[in-house]
Amino acid sequence: MSFAVYILGLSVFALGTSEFMLSGLLPPIADDMDVSIPQAGLLISAFAIGMVVGAPLLAVATLKLPRKATLIALITVFGLGQVAGALAPTYEVLFVSRVISALACAGFWALGAAVAVAMVPVNQRARAMAVMIGGLSIANVLGVPLGAFLGDQLGWRSAFWAVAVASAVALVGVVTRIPHIPVPAEKPRLKRELAIYGDRQVWLAVVITALAGGGIFAAFSYLAPLLTDVAGIGEGWVSTVLALFGIGALVGTALGGRFADAHLFGVMISGIAASMVLLSALALFATVPAVVIVLAFLLGVSAFYTAPALNARIFNVANAAPTLAAATTTAAFNLGNTVGPWFGGTVIDADLGYESPAWAGAAMLIVALGLVMIARRLHGRSRVVAGSPGVTVRPEPVTERV
User: Does the CA dihedral 143-149-152-154 come out positive or negative?
Assistant: First the structure.
């Protein structure tokens, strides 16, 4: 495996840490910026909005640009966004810095995946992608809890400075280790790829993914105040609980990736149903510290157990759009990351307590589960029609790979 691929994995670690670390920093940010917890939670939505908009736009906009130079530009902008966040004098400046950082993050994700695949032999492509995704998993296990720890010990701005340093290290690696990658000779037919958005199965997959991710993030975004104000856990333990969620995410990713190939809809249904039950339990037993800690770990398992199948579903129904499929998946997940924290903040503003985002997330997952049932029925019908005599229909891939 080319060492350059690991440089991209390091970059993704910095990107992922920045995206998710605010879950452990909301109370100090709210106090320092003189805003409410739900308003601070909108900073998570701001990053997600930037990802939703940036993923498809930058995937298309950077097609004709030199690969290495574009990666350098994007990681530089991302790092400067962290510096701007660390120095932000007002909530508004911090909000804008999050959006700009997210746009750069989305572009780096879209282009970095293509570069990683281009740098390795065909038989190592899956391994290369695993290294990049591994950077995101490690961000949940190490980066997010470390950000919460730094925020508790040195103030929330120190977490932004730490990500800025990690971005600078990644920038040096990209400059020195990423080789020149030529622009693909064959240009994608974007007009044909855009036609996938006329397929109801694509939109159904996008909505399912957004609801599944949003249901988790409605609760996860406000986990820190729930731990301290409702469960009565000390602030110093927040980073530990977040680390347990990240460890659960690693376990869930491994399990979901193993079973999603053969049982895609089964993984989606069981994973979303499990998350729904766990969120309901979190709301019911929010005052019991030991139960909340265990549920945080199990939520990490169930959420990331479902993720590979959600990814695979979008790639399967959008397999005619190689340029936009990955961008659509990224946008779908971050659409959920936008709506979830907003919905969670809305129920808190309604004076329903810090356990109410868990109920809100469970409600989103109930809708997602119903849509999965509809998608499974439509999938079965499309395969039957595709096999009928005299009918030519493009069926979805029978082998549903992540």
Answer: negative
